[in-house]
Design goal:
The structure holds two protein chains of two kinds.
Chain A: E1 4-10, E2 13-19, H1 25-32, E3 51-54, E4 57-60, E5 73-75, H2 88-95, H3 105-118, H4 124-130, H5 142-158
Parallel strand pairs in A: 1-5
Antiparallel strand pairs in A: 1-2, 3-4, 3-5
Helix pairs in contact in A: 2-5
Chain B: E1 2-4, H1 9-18, E2 23-26, H2 32-37, E3 45-48, E4 58-61, E5 64-68, H3 73-78, H4 80-85, H5 87-93, H6 99-102, H7 107-112, H8 120-127, E6 130-135, E7 138-143, E8 148-150, E9 153-154, E10 161-167, E11 174-181, E12 192-200, E13 206-214, E14 221-222, H9 224-230, H10 237-250, H11 261-282
Parallel strand pairs in B: 1-3, 2-3
Antiparallel strand pairs in B: 4-5, 5-10, 6-7, 6-10, 8-9, 11-12, 12-13, 13-14
Classes of the chains: A alpha+beta, B alpha+beta.
The complex binds flavin-adenine dinucleotide (FAD) and FE2/S2 (inorganic) cluster (2 copies).
């Protein structure tokens, strides 16, 4: 099987990779680029653990082929903190203990960041609907929602 | 497996026509990639249509809206004009999956996947949408309800694919709505879906109607008797009762883990009544 050459950017850095035609973007990120922050829960679009942004839009990287990424800008959890400085969402997740095993966390952080970019002042209901595609089997969601609402509040104050 | 991303409709048709073995169209991939992963399909080739110029646009046409086959449901939701003319269709498209799924999935993919429970299809059928199909013999147009022929089966021939879907010009005093029943509040497959489009005259009397049901038959049903129950009435309680009876008697559902025949038959009528009230309100009728 011949490999496909793909040119993209990941978290602002130019990245080129070779991938098989069946490889998903998730396979490419984890196995070819060594960026294992993005998780695989189900591989079928149901759990959101693999959430990334492509050209600013939130998607499941398990449901996109690596080959489709040609020319696009990809954003992953690895691009969220600024050096050692955590993103407010990351800090609030720690403060609110909004994670236990942590498998869902990168996906939920990426999805929450995407929510706050399009809607800096979401209601709790809007937040819960936005995150409906991100499953967490540990926390019961409440602490996650509180962390996102608190981070949104802090980010609004700061801006 | 070969991955191709042609940039013109003509080259896509040539590739589809020339393909030996299974060549699958890839739009948002939210059905296709799931089926590939589960081993239900193993295509010899995949043809990504998202690089084809023009397929990513929503454009005005004869007062209506032409939606390219590569437009995501999220893009439909963000488009102002489309949502104010056809709120039912746009809401149906944005009931599909999660935000992540909506960022990728398309209404043409929802249609061609040919699931009886596809959410956008009853809304498109009620709206009177047509599909434009490119193929080896040129382009043809057909009503959306002619595409699905059974679960997982379509009327598209070898080398054919849908390039766009046209929503007709919205008539004055008209409105559409789509509702589905699912046991959860998000991320589930319709147990019953109902789309309604209706037009009122200046006296508030229903002049025309289209009523469709999803998930209660092998393909989406366009229920003529249900439309007749509304036409000539003010969509009052009596008409709504007749509408519900017509929908329940048209439903031919199956029993499965998400709903029994009895439940689906009943809910067909209930959803139709609720959708009709919303459509009437959107058409400017008094409640
Ligand atoms: C987690 C999850 C939740 C979901 N929830 C829902 C839901 O609530 N409601 C619902 O209705 N669906 C749901 N789906 C199913 C799916 O997202 C939809 O059917 C979606 O609209 C498919 O569109 P797509 O562009 O991703 O299709 P693709 O996967 O790209 O294609 C689907 C099929 O149609 C063919 N095809 C695609 N475009 C064309 C074209 N233009 N011409 C000819 N053939 C074409 C493909 O070859 C393939 O066979 C869900 C899926 C997932 C993974
Ligand atoms: S791994 Fe992609 S949604 Fe679960
Ligand atoms: S913290 Fe374990 S799945 Fe969410």
């Amino acid at each position: 099987m011949s490999n496909i050459h793909v040119t993209t950017s990941v978290n602002g850095d130019p990245v080129e990779f070779l991938c098989g035609s069946q490889d998903t973007l998730l396979d490419v990120l984890r196995d070819r680029l060594g960026m294992t922050g993005t998780k695989e829960g189900c591989g079928t679009g149901d759990c959101g653990a693999c959430s990334v942004t492509v050209n600013g839009r939130l998607i499941c990287s398990c449901l996109m082929l690596g080959a489709e990424a040609e020319g696009s800008e990809i954003g992953t959890i690895e691009g969220m903190a600024d050096g050692d400085a955590l993103h407010p969402l990351q800090r609030k997740f720690i403060e609110h203990a909004a994670l236990q095993c942590g498998i869902c966390t990168p996906g939920i952080l990426v999805a929450s960041k995407s929510l706050l970019e399009s809607n800096p002042e979401p209601t709790e209901e809007e937040t819960r609907y936005w995150l409906a595609g991100n499953l967490c089997r540990c926390t019961g969601y409440d602490k996650i929602i509180r962390a996102v609402m608190d981070a949104a509040h802090e980010m609004r104050e700061a801006s | 497996m070969q991955y191709q991303a042609p940039t013109t409709v003509e080259s896509a048709v040539s590739a589809l026509t020339a393909a030996e073995g299974d060549c699958h169209i890839l739009a948002g991939g939210t059905d296709l990639l799931v089926r590939m992963r589960s081993g239900m399909v193993s295509p010899a080739a995949i043809l990504d249509i998202k690089k084809i110029a023009g397929l990513r646009n929503i454009a005005r046409e004869d007062g209506g809206w032409r939606i390219g086959a590569a437009v995501s449901c999220a893009e439909m939701g963000e488009h102002d004009g489309l949502g104010s003319d056809w709120p039912g269709v746009v809401e149906a498209a944005n009931l599909i999956g999660s935000v992540q799924i909506q960022g990728r999935c398309t209404i043409a993919g929802n249609l061609c996947n040919a699931s009886p429970a596809a959410d956008s299809v009853p809304a498109l059928v009620a709206a009177g949408a047509t599909a434009r199909i490119a193929g080896p013999n040129g382009t043809r147009e057909t009503a959306v309800q002619n595409i699905c022929t059974g679960p997982g089966a379509t009327s598209l021939g070898k080398g054919e694919f849908i390039t766009s879907i046209l929503l007709p010009a919205k008539k004055p005093n008209s409105g559409d709505a789509y509702l589905r029943f699912i046991p959860r509040t998000e991320m589930d497959i319709a147990v019953v879906g109902c789309g309604i489009f209706l037009t009122l005259d200046n006296e508030g009397v229903c002049a025309s109607a289209r009523v469709s049901l999803g998930a209660v038959a092998p393909t989406v049903l366009l229920v003529e008797e249900a439309a007749q129950a509304l036409v000539g009435t003010t969509v009052d309680e009596t008409a709504l009762g007749a509408l519900a009876a017509a929908c329940s008697s048209a439903a031919r559902p199956i029993n499965d883990k998400r709903g029994t025949i009895e439940f689906r038959t009943h809910v067909s009528g209930v959803l139709a009544q609720r959708a009709a009230k919303i459509a009437k309100k959107r058409a400017g009728g008094s409640s």
